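Subject: sequence -> structure tokens, single chain

Hey, anyone have a minute? Need the predicted structure for the following. Not urgent.
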Amino acid sequence: MTAKPTVRPARPNFASGPCAKHPGWSIEALSKALVGRFHRSKPAHARIKAVIDNTRKVLNVPSTHRIAIVPASDTGAVEMMLWQCLGARPVDMLTWESFGETWVNDVIKQLKLKDARIIRADYGKLADLAQVNPDHDVVFTWNGTTSGVRVPNADWIPAHRKGLTICDATSAAFAMDLPWDKLDITTYSWQKVLGGEAQHGMLILSQRAVDRLESYTPPWPLPKIFRLTKGGKLQEPIFDGDTINTVSMLCVEDALDGLAWAESVGGLKGLIARSEANLKVVSDWVARTPWIEFLASSPDIRSCTSICLYVTADWFKALPKEKQIEAAKKITALLDAENVAYDINSHRDAPAGIRIWGGATVEAADTEKLLPWLEWAYGEVLKTYTA
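Reply:
Had a minute. Here:
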């Protein structure tokens, strides 16, 4: 059995959302927040617009794409686009984890689209991208936050497609290189790779997406917080910082701080390198540890942010499902109690296991310090089930 380690991670925040604040973050970062100010006042609007401008700079978003801050986190951003854009063409729904299933549920059970096709894969696998019809719209997650499976590239998306690509990129943006020429609608939230605060979503639209919004009116009513057009035209001020509804100026200030930190570590290239460093630390450990494996079956689809693992030991596999969940929770509870790692249970819809956030705000040195503790906790729980 592994002896109990003595060196803890400096920061035990390995949760997959809200995620760790960036190294060196302090509440002082919010000291300039324009609290108590009208969000449409000139100084407040300037701060909101700065988030949009700095986002474009860090993510290398081309000038052909529009960027907006929208309500209700990534979920709100995805929902508003599904409800405004779908129905004009058949749609292919790609799903290999719980958030993809959420969008399937919306399209099939809420919008009740008859020409929706579901292309599904089990946890740990990637849906068959070759099945996607370029004449259809397609909805997909770039990175499956609850399965640890990411799209390896955008080669499967043709340049001369007729349908729109609608990409939920919430745990991919700022940690993976998103090909803007292949993405028409992209959404994410600050609370993931930037380590920002929740409640606000980010929406990035290509001109093709704008054309759809201005040429298609869905047959169902839209609530105010979903409406991006007026009189058949895009409401351009929304993409210049004039948000649909009231934003939190504290959250805006925190987003600006996160973007400034992103630039300080080398921009997108530096952020990707930091996240990939976390994946490498875990990969090297898994390779030498006989009782654990990645949920993602193939290295080319393994996420560098939501790193999902499962126990492969015979004793664990012999347990009924509810006991596997119990055993995995005992491992993570030990680490929580020791202030080593918080909130690293696998998602409730995923197979029982461990999920370590490896986004850019997590130091690879802390990830490395976590792993001996995982071995110790596993050994302690093993005693319980094999005594």
